[in-house]
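Chain A, query sequence.
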Amino acid sequence: VQLQASGGGSVQAGGSLRLSCVASGRTFSSFNWMGWFRQAPGKEREFVATISYTGVRTSYADSLKGRFTISRDNAKNTVWLQMNTLKPEDTAVYYCAADSLRDPTSSEYNYWGQGTLVTVSS
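Chain A, predicted structure.
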C-alpha cells in the first residue's frame, strides 16, 4: 500500500489549501478509516481529522472544527483535507494515514503517506 499526499505549499494567513492523498495497492473502500495528522516543528504529531470508509462519519480535532473539512471518494482512491482560514499555527507537515487499528483519532494506523508541508505566513 502506498499513500501519496500532495497539495501543500505556502499561503498567507486567512488563505486556503486543499490537500489530497491518493492510495494504491489495496481497494480504497476497504480502509475502514482515513486520517490526516500533522507535525509542527519541534512538536509531536497530532490528530487533525478522520473519515469512515463510507464517508458518513467524520471526526476533527476540536481546535480545527469549522475550518477544516475531510472528505473521500472511494472511486478515486482519494481523501482530501480542505483547510480554510489558515493560521500561522497551522504550519506543519501534514500526513495522511489509512486503516485505523483501533481509535481512528489516535495515530495507530497501518499505513502512512510521506507528508506534505504547509507553511502559513502572517
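The two ends are 37 Å apart (CA to CA). The longest strand covers residues 92-100.
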